[in-house]
């Protein structure tokens, strides 16, 4: 659906996000002001060539109004949702008494599909909206990012900004958490309003079919686990980076410079498999070859490292061509290199 809205001054607004529907659609424009306005609209529509069983999401929005207290240690939440879909845009409007805009110094964090590591972790609010150095040149408008408003009313500093993910939509298969700090480490009292644009389905597009814990003898046996060239085994107590970076999690594991093998149960109707591991990210640039049922799949590389919050959830995509029609797969991880010569 394309919508054009024109007010009495002559400003025109465009809305080009596709809005799929199967049987009917209703478009409503609500005026909440005390005075009447004149509006001309134009709506374009065309055929939708998918049936009711098609895998598509409806266009929707999620609104949030939240206050972040000073030093409360909690992010402001834009979106916390289960299901599948993709995030395509956000409007964010915060206000704070900090006229030096210190409330800008907050990182955005986006967690996808149950990962405890944020897949996206930014460096500051204005950077996220493509206006680094505190929107140094003040207001601007571009097709994909805008700093639309800045005002000072009494002691309050107010801003509004937009970011669209048209060329880099953020896909989630079981759920998404999208949040931002208010000031560095949530230290600045801030009130915010946000609107997230996303396509959504209630149904998940991915399911957990198997997992096991290295260090648990019974689970290792059930998954035919073996390791060659083991260097260390034991227990580690680390934290994850992100909003829970003070929460200590204890887990068992090992390191090796040879290879490990294990079997997993999968759904034979799969469209590929995502392999996830909790890794010790203090060991830098870990690189390994991955094989499925004896066939080489590719390189699993996790670049960089974090010696402060050492846990990280890392993902590896196994394409459908290696898993289609199978109920079980044998995975081999063959060490190649790392900063300390171990995986």
Written description of the protein model:
The protein is mainly β. The chain is 5% helix and 48% strand. Strands 4, 6, 9, 10, 11, 12 and 14 form a seven-stranded antiparallel β-sheet that branches. Strands 15-16-21-18-19 form a five-stranded antiparallel β-sheet, with no helix packed on it. A four-stranded antiparallel β-sheet has the order 5-13-7-8, with no helix packed on it. β10 (145-153) and β11 (156-164) form a beta hairpin. It is globular and about 75 Å long.
Features:
5% helix; globular; single chain; 4 helices; 343 residues; 7-stranded antiparallel sheet; disordered N terminus; 21 strands; 5-stranded antiparallel sheet; mainly beta
* H and E string: EEEEEEEEHHEEEEEEHEEEEEEHE
Major sheet: size, sense and barrel closure?
Answer: 7 strands, antiparallel
- Strand portion: over 45%
Going by helix content, strand content and strand pairing, the class is: mainly beta
Tell me how many strands there are. Answer: 21
Number of helices: 4
How confident is the prediction overall: mean pLDDT? 93
User: Shape, please?
Assistant: globular
Measured on Cα atoms, how large is the radius of gyration? 24 Å
Low-confidence segments, ≥5 residues, pLDDT <50? 1-9
Distance between the termini: 50 Å
Quick summary of this structure?
The chain has 343 residues and is mainly beta. The chain has helices at residues 125-128, 132-135, 217-222, 320-323; strands at residues 2-6, 12-15, 40-44, 58-68, 76-82, 84-96, 108-112, 120-121, 140-141, 145-153, 156-164, 170-172, 175-180, 190-201, 226-238, 249-265, 273-280, 286-292, 295-302, 311-318, 328-337.
């Amino acid at each position: 659906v394309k919508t054009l809205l024109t007010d009495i001054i002559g400003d025109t607004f465009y809305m080009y996000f596709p809005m799929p529907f199967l049987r009917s659609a209703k478009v409503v424009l609500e005026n909440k002001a005390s005075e009447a306005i004149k509006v001309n609209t134009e709506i374009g529509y065309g055929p939708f060539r998918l049936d009711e069983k098609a895998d598509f999401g409806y266009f929707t929005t999620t609104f949030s109004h939240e206050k972040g207290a000073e030093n409360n240690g909690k992010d402001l939440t834009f979106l916390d949702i289960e299901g599948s879909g993709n995030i395509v845009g956000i409007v964010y409007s915060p206000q704070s008494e900090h006229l030096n805009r210190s409330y800008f110094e907050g990182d955005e964090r986006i967690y996808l599909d149950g990962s405890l590591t944020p897949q996206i972790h930014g460096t500051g609010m204005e950077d996220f909206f493509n206006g680094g150095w505190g929107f140094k040149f003040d207001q601007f408008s571009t097709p994909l990012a805008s700093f639309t408003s800045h005002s000072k009313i009494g002691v309050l500093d107010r801003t509004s900004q937009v970011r669209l993910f048209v060329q880099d939509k953020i896909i989630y298969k079981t759920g998404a958490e999208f949040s931002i700090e208010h000031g560095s480490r949530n230290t600045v009292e801030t009130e915010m309003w946000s609107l997230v644009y996303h396509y959504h389905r209630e149904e998940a597009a991915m399911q957990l079919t198997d997992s096991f814990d290295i260090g648990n003898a019974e689970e290792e046996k059930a998954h035919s686990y073996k390791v060659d060239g083991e260097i260390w085994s034991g227990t580690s107590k680390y934290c994850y980076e992100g909003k829970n970076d003070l929460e200590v999690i204890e887990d068992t594991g090992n390191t090796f410079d040879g290879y490990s093998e294990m079997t997993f149960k999968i759904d034979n109707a799969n469209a590929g498999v995502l392999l996830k591991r909790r890794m010790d990210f203090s060991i830098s640039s870990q690189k390994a070859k991955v094989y499925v049922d004896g066939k080489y799949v590719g390189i699993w590389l996790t670049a960089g490292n974090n010696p402060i919050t050492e846990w990280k959830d890392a993902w590896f995509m196994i394409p459908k061509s290696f898993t289609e029609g199978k109920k079980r797969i044998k995975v081999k991880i063959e060490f190649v290199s790392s900063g300390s010569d171990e995986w």
